[in-house]
Amino acid sequence: MSVQEQLDELRDRAQGELDDAADLAAALAWEKAHLGPKGDVTLFLRGVGSLPTEDRPLAGRAGNALKIVLADLFEQRRATLAAHDLEQRLAADAIDVTLPGRPPSLGAEHPVSQMIDELSDIFALLGFQTVFGPEVETARYNFDLLNIPADHPARDVWDTIHVESPGELVLRTHTSPMQARVMETTQPPVRVVVPGRVYRYEAQDASHEWMFHQLEGLAVDRHITMADLKGTLTELARQLFGPSRRIRFRCDFFPFVEPGVDFAVDCALCNGKGCRVCKGTGWLEMGGAGMVHPRVLEGVGYDPARYSGFAFGLGIERLAMMRSGVDDVRAFAGNDLRFLRQFARAA
Ligand code: FA5
Question: Which of 83, 132, 144, 329 sits 20 to 30 Å CA-CA off 35?
Fold first, then answer.
């Protein structure tokens, strides 16, 4: 076969194969097979030196010309295949703008916030204003002005989360410090409720959290008595749990009230007979209360001979648990949407 025939044959074969290359990978393989370092065109050119002398000029010229033609054809084919490849990828990624969108999921009020709103509404009807106070509190308001002396167990480091150690600043352990803050800036008559977060250095279990919410209540005026306290809490229980609820007071000790009580509502589920929710007792504990201690009144400059008052503090999570039959207080701050969604209500 003459040199020209060899080159013609090589060109026809290479062209046919390039036309058959269906994608970029095949085209690159083709380039390697014909134009790469071990490709047949390269090998042909390398072999020119060993051809008979008279064939060498033609073989060299025609071989180089073929190399250029094939490189050109390859470049065209590569560009066509690359464009085709891009088109296919774009088509696969296409966004159908006519599909309906995913509805954004709206947040809902947390069950504790719902409870706070409801309590505020109930107390507003009874003439109480809702106010808020600081969560980082001084020991003076959290303890001293509440007649909690330095050696009282509530001041023990195990109950209180200190912001400075040892220091004057604490995370409030209850909402009661707002009693003194409100009275210091207001003259009687006082009627406020204070909802908010409180913190205790406490092991968590089904009924104890280290962060939870309380609602403080305070009424100070001329001639306020335990009957007013009982009437207010009975009305609260009826608004929350139904019209025939009753309130029970039992003696309890809090340094800032005298006398002090814990108060419970008779269980609405079993009507006081005893059930799973009230743990067979017929009563649901709500919180602590009592008549504001004369020393607390004196501490804020009120004359205890002229004014008297009642105060109470209740656990908001515990109230929400009773209302909704939740049996673990940790669920409220657990951030599990399956729990929280059950309380979502239409805005
Ligand atoms: C107090 O904190 C008093 N300040 C209440 C008070 C106010 C008494 C005014 C008198 C006058 P106590 O520590 O009992 O009291 O807490 C009140 C309520 O908070 C409890 O009845 C309970 O419902 C809730 N509570 C207490 N500890 C926790 C806790 N670790 N986790 C969740 N709720 C709690």
Answer: 83
